Every structure is written in structure tokens, then in C-alpha cells.
Amino acid sequence: MCYDVSFTVNIKQLSDYFPDLIFDDQIEINFEAAIHVVGHAYGNHPIIYVSRDDLKLHCRLMEWGVIPFWIKDESAYLRQRATMLNARSERILGDEKSYWYKIRNRRCLIPVSGIYEHRAIKGWKKKVPYFIKSINEQIIFLPGLYSVVELPDKETGELIKRYTYTLITRAANKVMSQIHNDGENSFRMPLFLPFELSKKWLQEDLSNDEFKAILDYELPSEDLEYYPVYTIRSAKERPDNKLKNEYYEWDKLPALGEMNP
Q1: 177 lies in which domain range?
Q2: Is residue 244 part of a domain?
Q3: How far apart are CA 156 and CA 162, in angstroms?
Q4: Which residues have CB under 8 Å from 114's CB, separation 6+?
Q5: Strand 128-134's sheet: what is its strand order?
Q6: Three-state secondary structure call for residue 90
Q7: pLDDT computed for residue 79 by the predictor
Q8: Is residue 261 part of a domain?
Q9: In Gene Ontology terms, what is a biological process of this protein (predicted)?
Q10: How far apart are CA 178 and CA 255, in angstroms?
Q11: 61 within 8 A of 24, measured Cβ to Cβ
């Protein structure tokens, strides 16, 4: 699955891809923190979607990790929320009992400059993180689904409308299978799309065949750039003082596909 992303571009650059995009007033981004966005922090991320109020394209902050619209007590739902960070593409149309099927028409895009994924190596105690980005585009627009829920403010009790989202994953391509090669959700990757398909994902009039074709799309391995980085899930400073998403040379790191667990 995918729980670690990076967004290191000026948010106004989104207008280069979507000229009519409306930015909501509440958008503020800490770009130092955005170099590594962790799903389990349930933090805010700029999300592109078609507003149901004016049917125009908006960008607003939404929380990563869907909260279903029927939830009344957020604290009781917290443990389950970890399972709502990602949505398997196979369930969106294929499982009519799933929440993803219920919100299948609440489609959105998650702009990232890249993602992090961990590789297990036989004989190594710790996994090696990799940074993965597009060879062709500075920004990847990952497809997702969003949900809206009203929950009481913890201090005032006033009902507040909360926007939350999930990131869609699919079976990994060859190179992502070699990187994400271990764990409960191994051999998965985000549903990477070329930009034209990302735009199509937001169309209100998608037919079932078009919908399924997008969910079934597999980005070729050669369209991805990838390299190892230093440990990302630690407060420990990088010994070379470089940024989290920059290349790091691990001693005796075997080539991809070798020494799998």
C-alpha cells in the first residue's frame, strides 16, 4: 500500500495543469514538512476535486484517511481509520458492499512530487526506503476518493464539516514489485496515471467501461524514476545532510530483484 508521499512544488504550479482551478482560502502548506507526508498522521493535503456546490474544479485541504459520513464519534473510529488511508482499485466497482463503492463518484486527485516505499533485503534487519517519481512529469496526480462528514468540534461541540480522502492502489508493476516486496500489503503500488487519464478521472460523466479502464491501468516501469534514500521513519539526521527525497548510497545494496526475502 502507500502511506508515505512527498509534495515539494509550489502549490500555484497546479494551475499550470488545471488553468481554471479555484484555490480555497484555507490552504497553507508547510513545505519543509511536505517533503515527507505520513498517512498515519491523518494530516491535511491539497486535493483537487469537482465541488458539488458549483460544479467547478477546486483545490482544498483534506485529511488523509477517510471518515465515513455516518460516523458520529471520531475517537471510537480512530483505530479503523488506519484501514481507510488506501482503497484497493479492485473493490471500487467490484465490491458493492464496500464504502468505496458508495463514494465511487466522489473522485479526486492527490498531487504529489513522488512517493516513498520500502524494500526488504534477505539478511538485512531493516528495510531500505526508495523514492519513486515520474520520469515525465514534475507532479503526479494520483487518483483518490473523498468523503464528507460532520463531527462535533472537540472544544465547542459545534458540528464541523470535515473533508477526508483515500489514495487508490493497485497490483504493482515489475519495478514496484521489486521495491515493495514484503509485508502484509506487498506487491501493491498507487494507481499511477498519465496526466490525461488523471484529468479524465474527474469527469462527471464517466461510463462504467471508462471507469474500469482507468482502475485497470498499469503504468509501465520505464515511466518511473526510483532510487534509495536514507531512513525516513526516524528522527535521526542523514549523515550527508541532504534532503529526505535525495539519493543515498547504501553500502553493498544488492540490485533490484536480488536477495529478496
Answers
A1: 4-228
A2: no
A3: 15
A4: 5, 6, 131, 132, 133, 134, 140, 245
A5: 37-38, 4-6, 114-119, 128-134, 224-228
A6: helix
A7: 85
A8: no
A9: proteolysis
A10: 10
A11: yes
